[in-house]
Amino acid sequence: MKDLLHPRHRAALDRFLGEGARRPVLLAFDYDGVLAPIVKDPAGARMRPSTRTLLARVAGLYPVAVVSGRAWRDTHRFVGDVVPTVVGNHGFELGHPVPVPARVLRTVRGWRRQLEAALEGVPGVHFEDKRSTLAIHYGLTRSWRRSEHAVYEAANQLAGTRLIPGKKVLNVLPHDFPSKGDAVRALLARLGCDAALYAGDDVTDEDAFAVGEPLVFGVHVGSGRTLAPWCLRAQEDVDALLERLVEARAGARPRRAAGRAR
Ligand SMILES: O=P(O)(O)OC[C@H]1O[C@H](O[C@H]2O[C@H](CO)[C@@H](O)[C@H](O)[C@H]2O)[C@H](O)[C@@H](O)[C@@H]1O
């Protein structure tokens, strides 16, 4: 993985954006851990004001989408005022809330009941019910590793799932659900774009990175194994990436509100 912001790699982003940064590209960002720092309480995951300002500028210059594992409504609450396209539930809610088929609702409710029974009394576990998928959070106590073990044991008993690990969370999806990779392909076609820069930090984002070049210019945020060829060293660096994107298309250097200078 090469640091996209290192001066040595400056030309890579320019090449992706094309002559005069005029190539029709989509900029797609994951929410948690990319646009917003990871915090203990999912309800409190907010973008820094500097990120919000820069993201709004970027969205005025390029097609922009936020592709999240959260429910569409939840994600839209955080970014809907600055970003026109929001994708929720790991790719299932493509640009708008999608009615959940009764069969899926029944299945997901059944999983929740089964998990609640199996995990009763396990400290720090809480469910984020996104109707078509579930997230089991287990990072709230010091002994979270023991809770993690119990969560995986319980989830492995469920039928028909795709389990996607995350940051102190296990995502439980119907096995035949679309992925973030499917969502990026669909958005490219819908928005008439040649390729997407996709920035993500988590296992669920690997589906988008797996699409690979020439369609996806993958940027992994933080350390760890990934299919993305590029990285940002830390979540704080997202502001510098957004600045570069503004600078490339608007030709002006935006005023920095905060974050690391490069
Ligand atoms: O695809 P994403 O937008 O990155 O969604 C992945 C999961 O993000 C959220 O959980 C993560 O962020 C929380 C807030 O920082 C943190 O408390 C939690 O430990 C992280 O796993 C979200 O709550 C989940 O539903 C998403 O699946």
Automatic annotation (TrEMBL):
Listed EC numbers: 3.1.3.12
Q: Does the keyword ATP-binding apply?
A: no
EC top class, as a word: hydrolase
The pathway is: Glycan biosynthesis; trehalose biosynthesis
**Can you tell which superkingdom this protein's organism belongs to?**
Bacteria
| Metal-binding in keyword set | yes
Please list the reactions this protein catalyses.
Answer: alpha,alpha-trehalose 6-phosphate + H2O = alpha,alpha-trehalose + phosphate
Instruction: Quote the Pfam families the UniProt record gives.
Output: Trehalose_PPase
Keyword list (alphabetical) reads: Hydrolase, Magnesium, Metal-binding
The similarity annotation says: Belongs to the trehalose phosphatase family.
Instruction: From the Swiss-Prot or TrEMBL record, give the protein name.
Output: Trehalose 6-phosphate phosphatase
Q: What is the lineage of its organism?
A: Bacteria, Pseudomonadati, Myxococcota, Myxococcia, Myxococcales
